[in-house]
Amino acid sequence: MTGKRHESLEHQHRPEVIRHRLREPSRVQNLPDAILGGIDGCVTTFAVVSGAFGAGFSATVALVLGVANLLADGFSMAVSNYEAIQARREHVEGVRRNEHQHIDLVPEGEREEIRQIFQRKGFAGETLERVVETICSDRELWVETMVREEHGLQTEGLSPLRSALTTFFAFLVVGAMPLLPYALPGLGTTRQFLASLLVAGLMFFLIGMGKSLVYHQPVLTSGLRTLLIGGAAAGLAFLTGHLAQTLFGVGM
């Protein structure tokens, strides 16, 4: 470990720094939502471009289809993410209400649950009883402990609106990248598609690298994996468009 890294860790673990960090509100990590929206946006628009090119559509048609899908699918995905996060919040609130009710009806049973939870963590004897007494003397702490420890639920940082907006804007920004070559005049259809292919490939790889920061995966491996997934989706769309042109005469 380098000297600077060690100094930084020592600073982060000073009592006053720890105290300040723990008092701050929980910081929601929006990067997973951004990665989700970015990957889906790039896959969606480049799949449309690939399908249009495979079917022999003009650049104008590909651009119109791409923009339409970009807006519609981006909105749909944002709404879906909003509803999913909202459902999680409602579930947590329901569990919290149940725990309050259980404490009113069977306080000793709930106290025993706290005892066994911390017993499994290695506490015993007088220390265990002091932990149980401390937690159960604060009703809100008691309930939050049960929500986290018994049910394994996250109780902070669930913001449906923030998640939805993050997903939507990431979808739009990254998803628009494969469409840029089709907005440039003077390029032939084949060159526009190849340029879009390069841009999409770069986006997939960069998103995969960014994903490695969230899930602690090897950077290169994560980038290549996302590139392969996006490439497979685009290849499937291209094949579908080409088959539609061949079998049904779809195209220009």
TrEMBL record:
Subcellular location(s) per record: Endomembrane system
Keyword RNA-binding listed: no
Main subcellular location: membrane
InterPro entries, alphabetized: Ccc1_fam
Domain of life: Bacteria
Membrane topology (UniProt): Multi-pass membrane protein
GO biological processes: intracellular manganese ion homeostasis
A Pfam family recorded for this sequence: VIT1
Keywords per UniProt: Membrane, Transmembrane, Transmembrane helix
Transmembrane segments: 46-72, 163-181, 193-214, 226-248
PANTHER family listed in its UniProt record: FE(2+)/MN(2+) TRANSPORTER PCL1
Protein name in UniProt: VIT family protein
Source organism per UniProt: Pistricoccus aurantiacus
Upper taxonomic lineage: Bacteria, Pseudomonadati, Pseudomonadota, Gammaproteobacteria, Oceanospirillales
